[in-house]
Every structure is written in structure tokens, then in C-alpha cells.
TrEMBL record:
Residues 339-367, 523-559 are annotated as: Disordered. Keywords: DNA damage, DNA repair, DNA-binding, Endonuclease, Hydrolase, Nuclease, Nucleus. This is ERCC4 domain-containing protein. Belongs to the XPF family. The lineage of its organism: Eukaryota, Viridiplantae, Streptophyta, Embryophyta, Tracheophyta. Residues 342-354 have a biased composition (Basic residues). CDD domains: XPF_nuclease_XPF_euk. It comes from the Eukaryota. GO terms for molecular function: damaged DNA binding; single-stranded DNA binding; single-stranded DNA endodeoxyribonuclease activity. It comes from Aristolochia fimbriata.
């Protein structure tokens, strides 16, 4: 461990109640957790680790090969979990399993030493982790709580988030460890690596795309500022480069998201799309980028705002110029930039005439040429390779030359720092796709890789054309003229040439795609014939040679597949020797191909995808690292790796696109993190922490809110101020509902939570009241899938008072949609119409509207007033059939006749407002038929309705002849 890591661990151990640790991104958080686990003794009690991701679990387990924590599964028997809780070991556990075991008293809380919570930036006052800590503090006041996060910028969302997290976890200490902290900077800068900054210039087309995207983003930001509903200080192009920019905008618009217009929503979506366009420009090749633009044009279409900006046309044009250009059949470029419409039409007419001559149209005097379209326009493939590819190969060749020179100079000298040198060059990319493509580039060369991507692009065009042709059903006879026939006449306007050029371009792409497709089919046929000949054993002469060449191709293909599959399986059983072996095989294949491509040799290369978040430096132990896509977190990992291996020679190459948003984003990420820590330091200096925040004064069952003075005076009027014994309220909660925060709020209100598995409903408040809780997003999805209808139907069957709780978020608008969007007619897409039809179909259903979680708790308390407490055993049996197939406690069979009620509601004159009064006045349908008109008028609320029903009941049926 480095000295600053030891300082962090020692500070945590000195505080008996725990603390909140905020680290810089990229610092080894998993090693600090591993050190705390190593220092943990079974005699202290059991240690539980909450909210850890799969990657964090793997990193901690890899750091502790002999004492790795195991995971407590929810499907294990209760007695088995009880034994694990009492063992004194460290375990990973999910919050939902732990809170259910705490509420059901299946945990010996006295044997719990403490809780370690990861990703603390995701916590809030109503989260399940806060519920767990409050229960644990009430039972065991000596248990500690230690929370960790390496996302400092996420700790600034909202007002005083760090202080609120500390309050809900009942901890008093905040530990801040930024990169500029004295201990951290001293340890990381004592033995820095040898860093080489390589600036790669952008191509002219890439610069044009970047400038156009930034202009489109700036235009969208200006339009968003006009709404006057967001803070304009955060709306800058620099903030728009980060993924968290979407969170900033969404957080500001979330309270009024249902009331803002479609244009504002589309602007937010467009900003996210433009941010991806900037990111993909420097990450992917030209063909992949063009393919992504094509999908955007189809998927977003006329809905998007940025597509109609002035700069959007430049984005598409520059992206095409990186891949191909249109030329005439004689090799001349198409001149489409003239401004005079008359000249345009003249040139277009001449090009058509020239095309007819080249294509051999009858009467033109020309002959058909092979591979030339009837339009006389063909594609000239550009296939611009990313500028970083060439620089990457030059860097690898330079590394290999330097190593060869060192071997010659130091043959007889054994360097201490090179004893554990594996000789591997680690190339770090953003994602797995970039790693695979760069590996293909080093093996095959840039031309073959770009050609393969181009063929995939064209084959996609062929498949799309076949799909459109198959789905197109057009009559042979014309239905009309012009627009009526589905054809828009093009007049002599300035847009006419653009439409024709687009048509020529489309036809040229389809022709090239058809040619590629036919060549692929011919190769498949030849391959099948050769394979069949080899199977029969009749190959002679040239056939035998073809068979041998085909065998060689199969071996090369097999080796390539093994190389690609090694990337997917290299982390399954991660051992240094295996990794070196894989890299040696890769480098051997690369060297074999380099001889044929006449390239210089390169060293063994291992690719690493930073999105996987795997700690590979300690396993691979590379001596040279090439950071292909710069990332701040990975830079910190490199610094820590070099500080832990001070005697090792480490050279790091950073590949930046010069004057690009890639450099701007990297520098802005460092400034943003430093600013976040400076803000947290100021908050820490002004933080007001109560004395009892350690949780020692917490009460278990009573509400933490102080009693008002008026209520205290009212109590003193009864029995000389003697406090009345209040009955404890109980709420039966489905275990799946612990993913939400409502059980936590109900417990804060002093209610006893009983977690069980319910077949009907989410909450049972009394033997008569069952509640199905729906958030806004869940309500819309339940209506779309039809699940809500079945849930309400089962509640109406087994409970007298079924309740549908519609719960809004506290910081959102208390409405589904704006008042202007609510129409007078029933609409199948309107949520109001769907709710109205649901209530009409289930008259006993009650809708409860709640503004927030705390309002829901107050509503539950008022609903439970003057009601009996629910029975846990009966609530669990509701809706569960027995072995005989009979459903126990079927309220429908015991209390009312559903068929008779449905028949009554369909009689003339019976409405939703009077059918309940008829049921109270008549015990059966037979009795209803004998009731006089005067009494029916009293029950039905009018003489007209009573006469309508009486005439219907007294009407004679026609005689059957």
C-alpha cells in the first residue's frame, strides 16, 4: 500500500462510528476496502458490504485471493443465512435481502461489527441503505458505518448532498482525498512515469465535422435558453461534452417535465445526440461514423431540431467525403457548386446526354461500358483511415526498435527493474469495439480493415433495398397524376438538382452494393465447390492447389478467431503467464502478416477496454502503455501503478487529436473534479453536525418528529396530562416493494413494517383495504402491457376496498400533463381516458393521488384510522390456491355475487350513481322484480329511471310460433 492509502485506513480506524470517504476518480478504492477487510477480525463480528457492483466485487476478490468475501444469496434458506450472519466473516449482500432479514429479526444484530457501503453518491434520505443503518443503529449502537465513493462531482447534485448523506447514515466525519492532496501528490509524483504526448492533427473533413457539430450544439443551447426554464450558467458547450450534462438538464427540467413542450424535450435529446457525434468522431472510423449518421437520419427524421440547422448539412456532406465521392464515368468530378440555375440545368442536361452515350442507349451512338451505371455516375472510394492508426503503428515500431537497441547495448547487464518485465505493450481504448478494430488493423493493415467496413456498409444497403422491395405493393395502373400517383413533379427550381443528385447517389450506392453482394455469392459458390471436391478426394492439378490454399485460408481464419475470442475470455481465469502467452501468439500472427505487408516488426500488444473497469495493470505489468483514448481515471491508475513499482521503467504514450474536443474534454474533466473537491472542502468547513448524529439517541418505533405544542396542550386536558397508550400501526408490505423508498418513510412515521410475499397487492393496510402502488412511469407501462387491469381485478375480487395509489415525486409537477393537452373526447393514448375507463369498469376501485412519499405515509395513516390491523397469515394466503384448487378467503364468494351485480348494472335506468342504493334496498334480483315503482323511485333517485326499469321488467316476451 502507498502511504496515502495507509493514512485513509488509519483515519477510518480511529473513528469508532465510521465516516464518509470521497476519493478522486481512478484512485484504488478496491485496495482500501481490501485493507479494511484484512484488518477485520472474526472476533469483532460480521462485516457486511452493500451496494457493490459486479466489477467492484471482482476487484476486491482479486485483491484478496485467500480471504475473498462471499455473497449471501436471497434464495438460500433462512437458517443458512442466520449461520452466515453469526460467522464473523465478511460478506457481499444486496440491500433488499438485508432489510427484509432485519425486519423479520433473522439477523443477530449484536454479532454485526459494521457495514461498508460503496457508491455513496447514489444514496439519499429515503434509500434502503439509510433504512438499514437506522434499524442497525437502533439495535446495535456500537456498529460502525463506512461509506465510500470515487465520484466527487456526483456529490454536488442538489443542496448540501454530502451533509444529507452523512445525516442519513448517522456518521460525523467527512474524509476528502483529492488528487492535489499533499499526501497523494507526494506519493504519485515521487517516481513519475516517462510520458510522451503525441498530438495527431485532424483531417480536414474531421475538422469540418467537429466545427459543424459544435455550431449545431451552440444553436440548440441558444434555443434551450429561450425557454427560461433552466439555469443558463450550466448551459455551455464545454459542459455539453460530458455525459453528466444530460443529468444537469434533466434535473432542472424534471419537476416540470410533463408540462414542457415537445420542442424543449427534443432539444434535450438533440444535445445528447450531438455529444455522441463528437465522441464517435474521434473514436470510430469514417465508415462506421457514416453508418451511424444514416441511422440518425432514419430514426430521428423530421422530429429532430438539429437536423434542420444550417450546419447539419455540412456534417453529412463531410462524413460522405471521408468515405466516397461521386464521379462521372469518364473520371471527371461532378461540379454541383455553381450558383446560376440556368447553368445548373445546362450542365445537368449535358451530363444526362453524356450518360446516355456511355451507357449505350439506342440512338445515342455510345456503347455500354462494364461496371458503369445507366446514369453515368459511379462511386470513387476514398475510405479515409483514422489519423491515429498510422501514428499508433509508428509508436509500436519505435518501441520495438528501442527494445532491440537496448538488447544490443545491455546484453551482459541484468537490470533489476526489468526482472518482472513481460515485454507487453498495453494499448488502452475506450470500448471493446475499438480494441477489436485496432487489432485487425495491426494484423491486416488499414486498407483491408476499411475495405471490410465498406463492404458491410454496402451489404446493409442491399438488405435495406430488398426489404423495401418486398414490402412495397404498388398497383400497375396509375391512380392519378403527380402527387396523386405518389410522384412529386420536380420543377425548374434550385432544389431540383439536389433531388436528382441524391437520386444518382442512391442509385450508385445500390449498384456498388449489388456488385459486392454478387461477388460474395460467387466466392461462396466457389468455396462450396472446392470443399465438395476435397471431400470426394478427386481434386487434381489446379484443384489440389486450390484445396491447399483453401486449407491455408482456413488456418488463418481459425487463428484470427482464436485471437478475437481471447479478448472475450482473457478475464475468465486471469493469470500473468496466460496473458503473456496470449500476447506472444498475437504478436507472432501480427509479425507473419507484417512480412507480407512489408511493415516493420512490432512488440507483443495487449488491448484493454476502459469501459470494462477491470484492474489489468497489476496483472499484466506492462512496461509501455499507449493511451489511445485519453481518460482521467485511467491516467490515475497509471500513476498509482508506477508509484507502487518505483523501480520499474514505464513509458506512457498519450495520443491526442490536436485542437479537438478530445483534448478539451480531458482537460475539462480535470478542472471539473478539482472544482468539485474545492466545493466539498468549503462545505466541510461550514458543515453543522449535531451532537447526536452518531445515532445513539435514535428510537426504534416512535416517530422522530417532535410533537407540536398544540397537541401537547390537548393531551394535558385529558387525565391530568397522562399520556395515552397509542396502538402501533402495522402495514404488510410485499418484499418486492423494498426496491422503493416508501417502506422506509412508513417506518419513519412510526409504523411497523411486516415484509411478506403477497400475491395480491403491494400493501395491506387492514383486512378490508389493499393498495396497489404505482409510480408515474410504472403507471404508463402497466397500462401499455395490460398488467394493471389484472392487478385491479384480483384486488376487487379479494378485498372490499381496493385502492390504486398513484404516487408522484416530490420534486415533480403534480399533474400528468398540461391542461392544454387534456381533450374532451376519449382517446386511446390519453392517460386520463384510460383511468376513466378503468374506474368505470371497476366501480369499487378507489384512486388515491399522492404528491410525495411523505404524503403517502400520511394518507396510509388516515386510511388505517378506525380499522383493524391486518393479519399476516391471511394476507399471505390471499390469491394462493390450495391443493384442491380452491382459493381460500375468496371475498367475492362470501360477501357478494359478482354475476348478479354485473347483471344489475346492465339493466335500463341503473347507473353508477344508483346501483349501490338498489343493492342496499333489495337482497336479490327476484326481490327487485317485485318492488313497486314508488320505492324504485326512492332508490334510483328519480321517477323516470324507476319507470324505465319497471317497464323493462314488466315487458312481455314475444311468443314463439
Amino acid at each position: 500500500m502507498l502511504p496515502f492509502q495507509q493514512h485513509i485506513v488509519s483515519e477510518l480506524l480511529e473513528e469508532p462510528t465510521g465516516g464518509l470517504v470521497v476519493l478522486s476518480s481512478g484512485l484504488p478504492l478496491h485496495k482500501i476496502i481490501s485493507s479494511l477487510l484484512l484488518l477485520h477480525s472474526p472476533s469483532q463480528g460480521t462485516l457486511l458490504i452493500l451496494s457493490a457492483t459486479d466489477t467492484q466485487k471482482a476487484s476486491i476478490s482479486l485483491s484478496l485471493p485467500d480471504a475473498a468475501p462471499t455473497e449471501i444469496a436471497g434464495d438460500s434458506p433462512s437458517h443458512h443465512r442466520l449461520a452466515l450472519y453469526s460467522s464473523g466473516q465478511a460478506f457481499f449482500i444486496t440491500p433488499r435481502i438485508l432489510i427484509v432479514d432485519l425486519l423479520t429479526s433473522k439477523i443477530p444484530t449484536s454479532r454485526i461489527a459494521g457495514i461498508v457501503i460503496l457508491n455513496a453518491h447514489k444514496l439519499s434520505e429515503t434509500c434502503t441503505e439509510a433504512f438499514i443503518v437506522r434499524l442497525l443503529r437502533s439495535y446495535n449502537r456500537d456498529a460502525y458505518v463506512r461509506a465510500f465513493t470515487d465520484r466527487p462531482h456526483a456529490m454536488l447534485s442538489g443542496f448540501a448532498k454530502a451533509e444529507r448523506i452523512m445525516k442519513c447514515l448517522f456518521i460525523r466525519k467527512l474524509h476528502l482525498w483529492p488528487r492535489f492532496q499533499v499526501y497523494v501528490s507526494q506519493d504519485l509524483e515521487k517516481h513519475p512515469p516517462d510520458v510522451i504526448d503525441v498530438r495527431v492533427p485532424l483531417s480536414s473533413h474531421m475538422r469540418g465535422i467537429q466545427k459543424a457539430v459544435i455550431e449545431a450544439m451552440d444553436a440548440c443551447l441558444k434555443e434551450l435558453r429561450k425557454t427560461n426554464k433552466v439555469d443558463v450558467e450550466d448551459l455551455t458547450v464545454e459542459n455539453g461534452l460530458f455525459k453528466s450534462f444530460d443529468e444537469i438538464v434533466y434535473r432542472q427540467l424534471d419537476p416540470i417535465w410533463h408540462t414542457i413542450g415537445r420542442r424543449t424535450k427534443q432539444l434535450v435529446s438533440d444535445l445528447r445526440t450531438l455529444r455522441k457525434l463528437l465522441d464517435y468522431l474521434v473514436r470510430y472510423d469514417a465508415v462506421t461514423y457514416l453508418k451511424y449518421l444514416d441511422t440518425l437520419r432514419v430514426s430521428e427524421g423530421v422530429r429532430s431540431v438539429w437536423i434542420f440547422a444550417d450546419s447539419s448539412n455540412k456534417i453529412f456532406e463531410f462524413a460522405k467525403k471521408r468515405v466516397y465521392q461521386l464521379v462521372l464515368s469518364d473520371g471527371r468530378k461532378m461540379n454541383v457548386e455553381a450558383k446560376n440555375p440556368a447553368n445548373k440545368r445546362r450542365r445537368l442536361k449535358d451530363s444526362k446526354k453524356k450518360a446516355k452515350e456511355d451507357a449505350g442507349v439506342p440512338g445515342s451512338g455510345g456503347e455500354a461500358k462494364a461496371g458503369v451505371l445507366t446514369t453515368g455516375v459511379i462511386l470513387d472510394e476514398i475510405l479515409e483511415e483514422p489519423p491515429k492508426w498510422k501514428v499508433l503503428r509508428e509508436v509500436l515500431e519505435e518501441v520495438q526498435e528501442e527494445r532491440q537497441r537496448q538488447i544490443l547495448e545491455e546484453q551482459d547487464v541484468l537490470m533489476v527493474e526489468d526482472i518482472d518485465d513481460s515485454g507487453i505493450v498495453l494499448v488502452a481504448c475506450k470500448d471493446e469495439r475499438s480494441c477489436m478494430q485496432l487489432e485487425d488493423f495491426l494484423v491486416k493493415g488499414s486498407q483491408k480493415v476499411m475495405r471490410a467496413e465498406w463492404e458491410k456498409y454496402l451489404l446493409g444497403k442491399t438488405d435495406l433495398k430488398a426489404l423495401k422491395t418486398r414490402n412495397k405493393k404498388k398497383s400497375q395502373e396509375p391512380k392519378g397524376f403527380g402527387i396523386l400517383n405518389g410522384v412529386t413533379p420536380v420543377g425548374p427550381s434550385e432544389n431540383a438538382e439536389a433531388a436528382i443528385i441524391s437520386k444518382l447517389e442512391h442509385d450508385a450506392l445500390i449498384a456498388a452494393a449489388s456488385k459486392i453482394s454478387s461477388l460474395a455469392e460467387e466466392n461462396c459458390v466457389e468455396g462450396d465447390s472446392v470443399s465438395n471436391t476435397n471431400k470426394r478426394g478427386q481434386g487434381r492439378g489446379r484443384g489440389r492447389a486450390n484445396g491447399q490454399s483453401q486449407k491455408g485460408k482456413d488456418e488463418v481464419t481459425k487463428s484470427k478467431i482464436m485471437m478475437e475470442s481471447s479478448d472475450n475470455d482473457k478475464f475468465e481465469n486471469l493469470r500473468p503467464n496466460d496473458e503473456v502467452k496470449i500476447c506472444e501468439n498475437n504478436s507472432k500472427d501480427v509479425s507473419d502478416n507484417l512480412e507480407t505487408l512489408q511493415f516493420k516488426p512490432i512488440p507483443p500488444v495487449q488491448f484493454y477496454a476502459m469501459d470494462s473497469d477491470r484492474r489489468i495493470l497489476d496483472v499484466m505489468k506492462p512496461s509501455t502503455i499507449v493511451v489511445y483514448h485519453p481518460d482521467m481515471s485511467f491516467v490515475r491508475e497509471i500513476e498509482v501503478y508506477k508509484a507502487e513499482n518505483p523501480l520499474k521503467k514505464l513509458k506512457v504514450y498519450f495520443l491526442f487529436y490536436e485542437d479537438s474536443t478530445e483534448v478539451q474534454k480531458f482537460e475539462a474533466s480535470i478542472r471539473r473534479e478539482n472544482g468539485a473537491f474545492e466545493s466539498l472542502i468549503r462545505q466541510k468547513s461550514l458543515m453543522m453536525i449535531p451532537v447526536d448524529q452518531d445515532g445513539r439517541s435514535i428510537r426504534l418505533t416512535a416517530s422522530n418528529e417532535p410533537q407540536s405544542l398544540i397537541s401537547q396542550n390537548l393531551v394535558t386536558r385529558k387525565a391530568g396530562g397522562r399520556k395515552l397508550i397509542e396502538k402501533e400501526m402495522q402495514v404488510i408490505v410485499d418484499v418486492r416493494e423494498f426496491m422503493s423508498s416508501l417502506p422506509n418513510v412508513l417506518h419513519q412515521k412510526g409504523m411497523r413494517i411486516i415484509p411478506v410475499t403477497l400475491e395480491v397487492g403491494d400493501y395491506v393496510l387492514s383486512p378490508l383495504i389493499c393498495v396497489e402502488r404505482k409510480s408515474i412511469s410504472d403507471l404508463f407501462s402497466s397500462f401499455a402491457s395490460g398488467r394493471l387491469y389484472n392487478q385491479v381485478e384480483t384486488m376487487s375480487r379479494y378485498y372490499r376496498i381496493p385502492v390504486l395509489l398513484i404516487e408522484f415525486s416530490q420534486d415533480k409537477s403534480f399533474s400528468f400533463q398540461s391542461a392544454s393537452e387534456i381533450g374532451d373526447d376519449v382517446s386511446p393514448t390519453s392517460i386520463i381516458s384510460k383511468l376513466s375507463l378503468l374506474v368505470m369498469h371497476f366501480p369499487r376501485l378507489r384512486l388515491v393521488w399522492s404528491r410525495s412519499l411523505h404524503a403517502t405515509a400520511d394518507i396510509f395513516a388516515s386510511l388505517k384510522a378506525n380499522q383493524d390491523e391486518p393479519d399476516e397469515s391471511k394476507a399471505m394466503r390471499v390469491g394462493v390456491p390450495t391443493e384442491d384448487g380452491v382459493v381460500e378467503d375468496d371475498v367475492r364468494a362470501e360477501n357478494y355475487n359478482t354475476t348478479a351485480v354485473e347483471l344489475l348494472r346492465r339493466l335500463p335506468g341503473v347507473t353508477d350513481s344508483n346501483y349501490r342504493a338498489i343493492m342496499d334496498g333489495c337482497n336479490s334480483l327476484a326481490e327487485l322484480a317485485l318492488v313497486p315503482v314508488e320505492k324504485l323511485a326512492e332508490l334510483m333517485g328519480g321517477q323516470k329511471a324507476a319507470r324505465t326499469l319497471r317497464d323493462f321488467l314488466d315487458a312481455k316476451c314475444p311468443t314463439m310460433l
